Prior knowledge:
The protein is of the alpha+beta class. The chain has one domain (5-119). Helix content is 31%, strand content 28%. The protein has helices at 38-45, 69-72, 82-92, 106-119; strands spanning 5-13, 19-28, 31-36, 61-64, 101-104. The radius of gyration is 15 Å and the shape is globular.
Amino acid sequence: MNNREDILWLMFKNSDGEKIKVGELVKKKSKFYFKYDVEGVKKAMDYGFTPLPNLPRINSEYFREEMFRTFADRVEARLLNDEEIFDLIKTTGAKLDEDELEFFNPEIKEEVEETEEKVE
């Protein structure tokens, strides 16, 4: 069993092209957690963001023993287990043409910033 905690940020791209963090999807011990970033959601709502239909309360934390269907449906996941679905979301961002949502791996941002600091 994997005890590592993996975190993905759910980002909303507004009409100005700015990406706003609106939530976090966490995988910990093969369980899945989602919570909104309340301040980010409030900012994104000014640009048309609405909470996800199956996760409507922005002040709640959600927990599932299996991957949230709302997120699994964003990738080709029919034959994958929940761990593989999470990894696919992590590597692809699960971006759809019909909305402005995309997952972002904050670890990659940290690695890029560390590399930039070493170059300077």
